[in-house]
Fold this sequence. Notes:
- This protein is α/β, with parallel strands linked by helices.
- Strand 2, helix 2 and strand 3 form a beta-alpha-beta unit.
- Helix 6 (about 115-145) runs parallel beside helix 13 and helix 7 (about 165-175) crosses helix 13 (about 250-270).
- The chain has helices at about 15-25, 45-50, 60-65, 80-85, 100-115, 115-145, 165-175, 180-185, 195-200, 220-225, 230-235, 245, 250-270; strands at about 10-15, 30-35, 50-55, 70-75, 90-95, 150-155, 160, 175-180, 195, 205-210, 240.
Amino acid sequence: MNLQPTLGPKRIVCLTEETTEWLYLLGQEHRVVGISGYTVRPRRARDEKPKVSAFLTARIDKILALQPDCVFGFSDLQADIAAALVRAGVQVTVFNQRSVEEVFSMLYQVAAMVGCADTGLAWMDERRVRLDEMRREVHTLVADGKRRPRVFFEEWDVPHISAIRWVSELLGVAGGDDCFPELALQSLGKDRIIADGAEIVRRNPDIIIGSWCGKKFRAEKVAARDGWQDVPAVKTGQLFEIKSADILQPGPAALTDGVEQLHRIVMQWMKTHG
């Protein structure tokens, strides 16, 4: 008879999607008692768990009614929510992962908190192996004389916002070169605004990928922008969408479906246009 107590928090509220998806992947979904209304991964979480928050706002009363022993949040943008919960006596852990390595670190910390460090490490090791495989595939094509494409990743359309750091880094792994690498280091969207669309044109992207934070990407609208008709990506029809839930979630999604989609797009371009 196993009398070992359950390790870590038993009633967890996740204010963003990535920790929800990770706990499900770890087989710890029974610990999740509340989720963000924006959660789409995994799909069944929406049917199984009460929705208690948006991104910048939360129903503090609903969260407290769930009697959580831990709340997971993301970034300084949820600082006010976290402060209200802390004042109410709730344990809150707010992660602020922006780079790929910071995403891995967050995943390890959550896994360790729920007694699944070994399972989490095994999953992360598999992803690292796959990222290395992508790098080798790209290196082989470059060694054969193919060129890495210039990629403009547009996180929002009006105003234009370029890729956040983990997206830019995964794009590099996938084989593309971010057109605005200097902006990727800025954690806030307002600091990644490109006020002059002509600057995007000047950087001459071979591929444009849109992920408009939940709004449908409209390739025809991008192609019709003033002065964009001679951009290589527009001339060759290299305009793609990756759903924000797959790439703008700084957790399992970006390391799986997100980077895999980036890699397929870039590898196809290198084989046919590079």
